Structure to design on (725 residues):
């Protein structure tokens, strides 16, 4: 990308914001967001990522995006993953090892039910959105 | 049919013991009784913290957060909240002194954490600049470059009341202002990402999760003080943070957010990374600057202060990672907004790395003024294995122990100073009755002996002397005079050492001598370590009246020093015993005593 001017930056921000809003309005895509800080990776986040990818394949799901993010602060239950499925509350799962990742795909993504014993809470409200 | 509501029942171990299972069963039963079982899924969760107020039940998507729930509440929860869609005010969490009547949208109030520094961590992909931009990233830079004068920027920082998060708590605006006032052809902006205290990883997580916030902040400071060069000094042990910073810098350059004529303005600024080799003393600002200059990382006397005469003798603003991460939000939301968080003289939030004997270890960010009790028991979920709280060590090897009598003081710069402690950088190590004070203090002193740069005698010799004494005490070879001697050495180091490392290295000794003197005396006079951590002082014996001869301990012992026939009392050969304690924890009949 060429260097931006002030207008370019503002335009880009608006486009990206409305992309986000559209996602929540149209609600087509499922997102899996995995905590990939040093703590997450040390706890096995890369293995969980692989497990998610192959379980998504196995279930034949085409509308799933898998992304990474930094540490959410829940170090005692790493690896963590946030699951956003349209029509369901955004959910944060902890202690997501490969088996749990597969269970999340089968239960949460396919059957639209939450997985027992792995749900945690985002530690604080979002200051940027509010 | 798809599920409409999810009822989350907290299933952490602490709540389990306070009847979470019973509540779970009662709720499931009610969903059947009231015929909503197809619309509702009842789920057990992990621990939400808040165990003091447990068990907790949370209902989604409404986000109703119920505390101290009893099995008897199940009927009402289903009838009111699920069937009629109404909250039950009596079960909502209420901050003391606040009315219980919340509107639905205020329910989030139960959260004790406020995330300003970590606002993007866990939300964005740190390797995608567009995601940062979509969350108002680089909007503060926009505002500064096109709508504000440098003086207005500094005024905003002054209004915010932001104080440095690297430990000393110096007002950030004042540093910037000093540098701005100096006439110079070259000025520098430095980010201190050395983070060397054991147990601290706040800065690493911030850089790994949200690198652009630091780049944006440094650029803003460059504009405010008139600097065109930024340097991030980061320890080489943080490869992921370095990699993400590098990606972020490339992307920012690509977009014209770093480099010549940023966003078409006439302001230019660029940033480079310098790797530190991980010496603790290099986190001290003057040593850090020496290290960037290619010299050995040793502190130099202040004044001159870096803000006036720093890197290559040029005015240099040096701030900590967390300090930087606050800056874009302050510019965007205003200094007044920021100063409304926290306490009057310590505004904003503080990130702590909560570790040690705590259930929910992790990064927490709380408004200044939050009490230690809230951090340890509400957010941290209390002490592991139900043990008793002993103390919290803040500020790592320069820190001070805070005991249970101070659990309710607000955590801010001034309150901590008033009890002789300090904020430190944010490491918070929680100790329980299973920790030995002498042993922990010895660990910190060992660290300081290793990390003292050796430039000045009080620190080089003082740390070693203190370590030797602690070591002797932990072996049961201490003498009464040692106590006074340690205090004398500690006080001398405070006064005479050149830099913060040496001036504070005795803090763990001095503070534990103040609050846990009895434990030192026990080690010296009685040769006793109550926590069983000082191996030379511990002895395990089997009580022949209680031992039933099950052989469990003999099989657990790694050096085979436990002898005895089946169904006959066993004995431990203390000449061979390595004091690992495996038998002690393994005996199911309470037959083994630790002396
Ligand atoms: C021994 C020693 C180690 C230090 N280590 C760090 C460190 O790792 N990170 C940091 O930001 N500040 C550290 N400091 C504090 C810095 O000297 C300096 O005060 C700080 O970088 C200033 O930034 P602030 O005003 O944003 O806090 C250390 C100080 C001492 C005496
Ligand atoms: S106090 Fe210690 S670390 Fe600091 S200059 Fe002296 S010897 Fe070096
Ligand atoms: S485990 Fe306890 S009861 Fe069993 S042999 Fe050892 S001391 Fe005796």
């Amino acid at each position: 990308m060429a260097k931006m001017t002030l207008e370019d930056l503002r335009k880009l921000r608006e486009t990206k914001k409305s992309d986000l809003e559209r996602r929540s309005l149209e609600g087509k895509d499922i997102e899996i967001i995995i905590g990939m800080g040093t703590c997450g990776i040390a706890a096995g986040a890369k293995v969980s990522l692989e497990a998610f990818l192959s379980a998504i394949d196995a279930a034949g799901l085409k509308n799933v995006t898998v992304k990474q993010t930094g540490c959410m602060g829940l170090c005692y239950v790493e690896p963590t993953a946030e699951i956003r499925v349209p029509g369901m509350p955004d959910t944060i799962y902890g202690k997501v090892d490969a088996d749990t990742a597969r269970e999340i795909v089968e239960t949460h993504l396919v059957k639209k039910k939450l997985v027992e014993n792995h749900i945690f809470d985002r530690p604080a409200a979002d200051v940027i959105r509010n | 049919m798809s599920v409409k509501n999810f009822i989350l029942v907290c299933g952490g171990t602490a709540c389990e013991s306070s009847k979470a299972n019973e509540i779970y069963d009662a709720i499931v039963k009610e969903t059947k009784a009231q015929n909503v079982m197809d619309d509702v899924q009842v789920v057990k969760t992990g621990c939400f913290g808040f165990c003091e107020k447990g068990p907790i039940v949370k209902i989604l998507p409404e986000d109703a957060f119920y505390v101290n729930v009893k099995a008897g509440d199940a009927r009402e929860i289903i009838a009111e909240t699920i069937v009629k869609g109404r909250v039950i005010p009596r079960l909502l969490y209420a901050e003391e002194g606040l009315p219980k009547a919340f509107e639905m949208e205020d329910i989030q109030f139960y959260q004790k954490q406020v995330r300003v520094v970590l606002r993007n961590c866990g939300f964005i992909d740190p390797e995608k600049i567009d995601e940062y931009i979509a969350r108002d990233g680089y909007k503060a830079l926009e505002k500064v470059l096109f709508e504000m004068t440098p003086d207005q920027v500094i005024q905003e920082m002054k209004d915010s009341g932001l104080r440095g998060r690297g430990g000393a708590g110096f007002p950030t605006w004042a540093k910037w202002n000093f540098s701005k006032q100096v006439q110079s052809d070259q000025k520098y902006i430095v980010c201190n990402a050395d983070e060397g205290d054991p147990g601290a990883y706040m800065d690493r997580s911030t850089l790994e999760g949200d690198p652009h916030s630091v780049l944006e902040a440094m650029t803003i400071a460059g504009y405010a003080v008139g600097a065109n060069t930024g340097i991030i000094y980061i320890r080489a042990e943080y490869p992921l943070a370095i990699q993400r910073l590098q990606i972020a810098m490339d992307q920012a350059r690509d977009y014209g957010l770093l480099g010549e004529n940023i966003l078409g303005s006439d302001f230019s600024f660029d940033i480079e990374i310098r790797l530190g080799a991980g010496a603790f003393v290099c986190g001290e600002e003057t040593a850090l600057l020496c290290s960037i200059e290619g010299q050995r990382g040793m502190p130099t006397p202040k004044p001159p202060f870096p803000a006036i005469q720093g890197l290559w003798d040029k005015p240099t603003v040096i701030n900590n990672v967390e300090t930087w991460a606050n800056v874009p939000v302050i510019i965007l939301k205003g200094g007044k907004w920021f100063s409304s968080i926290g306490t009057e003289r310590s505004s904003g939030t503080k990130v702590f790395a909560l570790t040690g004997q705590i259930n929910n270890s992790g990064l927490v960010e709380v408004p200044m003024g939050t009490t230690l009790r809230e951090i340890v028991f509400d957010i941290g979920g209390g002490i592991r294995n139900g043990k008793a709280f002993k103390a919290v060590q803040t500020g790592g090897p320069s820190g001070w122990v805070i005991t249970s009598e101070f659990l309710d003081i607000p955590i801010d710069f001034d309150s901590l100073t008033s009890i002789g402690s300090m904020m430190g950088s944010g490491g918070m190590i929680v100790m329980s009755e299973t920790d030995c004070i002498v042993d922990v203090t010895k660990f910190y002193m060992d660290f300081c002996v290793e990390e003292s740069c050796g430039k000045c005698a009080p620190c080089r010799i003082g740390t070693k002397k203190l370590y030797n004494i602690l070591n002797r005490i932990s072996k049961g070879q201490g003498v009464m005079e040692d106590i006074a001697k340690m205090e004398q050495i500690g006080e001398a180091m405070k006064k005479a050492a050149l830099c913060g490392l040496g001036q504070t290295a005795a803090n763990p000794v001095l503070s534990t001598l103040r609050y846990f003197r009895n434990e030192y005396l026990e080690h010296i006079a009685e040769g006793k370590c109550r926590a069983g951590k000082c191996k030379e002082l511990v002895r395990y014996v089997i009580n022949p009246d209680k031992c039933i001869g099950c052989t469990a301990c003999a099989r657990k012992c790694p050096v085979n020093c436990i002898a005895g026939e089946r169904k006959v009392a066993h004995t431990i050969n203390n000449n061979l015993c390595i004091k690992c304690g495996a038998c002690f924890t393994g005996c199911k009949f309470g037959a083994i005593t630790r002396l």
